[in-house]
Amino acid sequence: MYLTIQAIVLRVTDYKDHDALLTVLTREHGKLTVKARGLRRKNSPLIAPCQLLAYGEFTLFEYRGMYTVNEAHSLELFQNLRRDLTKLSLGTYFAQVAEVISQEDLPNPELQALLLNSLYALSALNLPEDQVKAAFELRAACLAGYTPDLFGCHICGNETPDRFDLSAGQLQCSRCSRGEGGIRMPISDSMLQAMRYICFCEPKKLFAFSLGEENLQFLSAVTEGYLATQLERGFSTLDFYKSLYI
Asked: How confident is the model over 12-38, as pLDDT tens digits?
């Protein structure tokens, strides 16, 4: 049986002598693992569309429960992204997050759109990396089922809280945080407004917010901590990205 899909490559793993296994994210079928025969040969026609972070159209052949790439051509390679190591490593982190929160054979068009839009923002839009990173992380957390409560201190109801609880995904005032466990990070009012925007805006307008450089850095730290706390794991790709700034 043949299947035609549009997918983005999340991971490439060597397989046997000249083949590779691709983890791809599709709209209709969620995450799939497919075999690319001869991909590691020098003149393989699959090299471009089957590389990491490539978005393409794939014709797959299914045999005994395993998909094999029969044909593939590129739709978007994000060339500007590949010319910048830091942006490329950040995009690879986005792909690893998408792989973790997606599921096999479960449609997830919103996640694929988020990943593609985030890679496009890194590649083609002149936006700060912290802005793209924070928007991706928080929106990804929402798509994974971890939408935070961003409307008032959950203890006293104060509408201008200044702390965000990474474990509970809730806001608190500094005075309400005393004596309680958990990990809380300070947030400014402008950061809180940005977080609300990221969670509830139209997908196509995800990056249409602005913050000063310092607030963007703090926001990136908050969203990074929140996503890692909710997923209960770290990401090797994020560690590599951050190592480039040491």
From this structure: 999 988 999 999 999 999 999 999 999
Class of residue 200 by CB neighbours under 10 A (exposed 0-12, middle 13-18, buried 19+): exposed
Cβ neighbours of residue 124 closer than 8 Å, sequence gap 6 or more:
80
Is there a contact between 44 and 38 (Cβ–Cβ < 8 Å)? yes
Amino acid at 153: C
pLDDT of res. 111: 97
Instruction: Check if the beta carbon of residue 203 is closer than 8 Å to that of residue 195.
Output: no
Using CB atoms within 10 A of its CB, is residue 96 exposed (0-12), middle (13-18) or buried (19+)? Answer: middle
Q: pTM of this prediction?
A: 0.95
Other CB atoms within 10 Å distance of the CB of residue 43: 6
Tokens 């060597």 locate to: 14
The dihedral through the CA atoms of 230, 234, 238, 244 has a sign that is: positive
